[in-house]
Automatic annotation (TrEMBL):
It comes from the Bacteria. It comes from Pelomonas caseinilytica. Pfam families: ABC_tran, TOBE_2. The keyword Transmembrane helix does not apply. PANTHER family: MALTODEXTRIN IMPORT ATP-BINDING PROTEIN MSMX, OSMOPROTECTIVE COMPOUNDS UPTAKE ATP-BINDING PROTEIN GGTA. InterPro entries: AAA+_ATPase, ABC_transporter-like_ATP-bd, ABC_transporter-like_CS, ABC_transpr_MalK-like, ABC_transpr_MalK/UgpC-like, Mo/tungstate-bd_C_term_dom, NA-bd_OB-fold, P-loop_NTPase. Residues 4-234 form the ABC transporter domain. This is Sn-glycerol-3-phosphate ABC transporter ATP-binding protein UgpC. SUPFAM superfamilies: MOP-like, P-loop containing nucleoside triphosphate hydrolases. The keyword Isomerase does not apply.
Length: 350
């Protein structure tokens, strides 16, 4: 088991700087998820750890050793890609053991490692099958098993579940989490799927345009986002972002939600954005505001109700099973203890 320490990392493709002076510490034994939209640099960062991309500046240490310019085979890592990349003419056992056979690991040791990984991933009955005889989920398990048999210090996952359907993704998410708990290995996982990030991670790194926006536990980045980008990226349905302006008294807010803030936090005339997650809006007859229902989305165990308050659209999560129809006028209130306040100019949390 090894940690990863990245300092001042810079990666350029021609004149385009994809990663910009990035610092990141991956602790031993943690499940770190790199989260962000397509093109934010998360896969590029992962590939630089693996040694698949040359860095322009900075350093990468794995297990305390400088691996900045080391070959991939020297880094002590196991990697799982989005594509299964299995050899179609080889059995599951041969696919899992291929790298060990190339490295001339003794046959008895290969058998031990393959058997151990196959048991963990429920592949033992499938060892004599070929990839064409497997489902998509089983093929991805084989790809994961091929990485596990290396008994590496760090495991890297590059969107390994994105080619699977929703049911298989949920199953493999659980298996990956249980696998991490069993092995206690250091794992770095890339995804653009916030559900994967929230369910798998011990810490999440949110990235945008090659720059880290926030690092924290799933609860921290969801409940106290550092800026508007993080606030808007996490959450389904998305957080309600409501423009506001501080009145002359320095505490009252003008806008769709005329609340009051603690004195000294803001300045008169300052433009703000209020962040209110849908679960922190409460429908109640005696609420301070009334809004008109525009749309109702039944979600099984809850409803997402979209309301119009003046020119502001708001989404609310409703769990009590009440019947709500388009055109209803409903009272609601805000849980102010959960309110996020952001400066409109800097987009940073206040």
């Amino acid at each position: 088991m090894s940690g990863v320490n990245i300092q001042g990392l810079s990666i350029k493709f021609g004149h385009n700087e994809v990663i910009k002076g990035l610092d990141l510490q991956v602790h031993e034994g943690e499940f770190l998820v790199l989260l962000g939209p397509s093109g934010c640099g998360k896969s590029t960062l992962l590939h630089s750890i693996a040694g698949l991309i040359d860095v322009s500046g900075g350093s990468i240490h794995i297990g305390g050793q400088d691996m900045t310019h080391a070959e991939p085979a020297e880094r002590g890592i196991g990697m799982v890609f989005q594509s299964y990349a299995l050899y179609p003419t080889m059995t599951v056992e041969k696919n899992m053991s291929f790298g060990l056979r190339v490295a001339r690991v003794p046959k008895a040791e290969i058998a031990r490692r393959v058997d151990k990984a196959a048991q963990m991933l429920q592949l033992t009955p499938l060892l004599d099958r070929k990839p064409a005889q497997l489902s998509g989920g089983q093929r991805q398990r084989v790809a994961i098993g091929r990485a596990l048999v290396r008994e590496a210090g760090v495991f890297l996952f590059d969107e390994p579940l994105s080619n699977l359907d929703a049911k298989l993704r949920a199953e493999l998410r659980r298996e990956l989490k249980l696998l991490h708990q069993t092995l206690g290995s250091t794992m770095v996982y890339v995804t653009h799927d916030q559900v994967e990030a929230m369910t798998l991670a011990t810490r999440i790194v949110v990235m945008k345009s090659g720059v880290i926006q926030q690092i924290g536990t799933p609860a921290e980045v969801y409940e106290r986002p550092a800026n508007l980008f993080v606030a808007g990226f996490l959450g389904a349905p998305a957080i309600n972002l409501v423009p506001a302006r501080v009145a002359a008294d320095g505490v009252s807010l003008e806008g769709a939600l005329p609340l009051r803030l603690a004195a000294g936090r803001v300045k008169p005339g300052q433009d703000l954005v209020l962040g209110v997650r849908p679960e922190h809006l409460r429908l109640q007859d005696d609420g301070r505001w009334r809004a008109t229902v525009q749309l109702v989305e039944p979600m099984g165990n809850h409803q997402v109700v979209w309301m119009q308050l003046g020119e502001q659209a708001l989404s609310v999560l409703v769990h009590d099973g009440r019947r709500i129809a388009m055109g209803d006028v409903l009272g609601f209130d805000v849980d102010e203890s959960q309110l996020g306040v952001f400066d409109a100019a800097s987009e940073q949390r206040l």
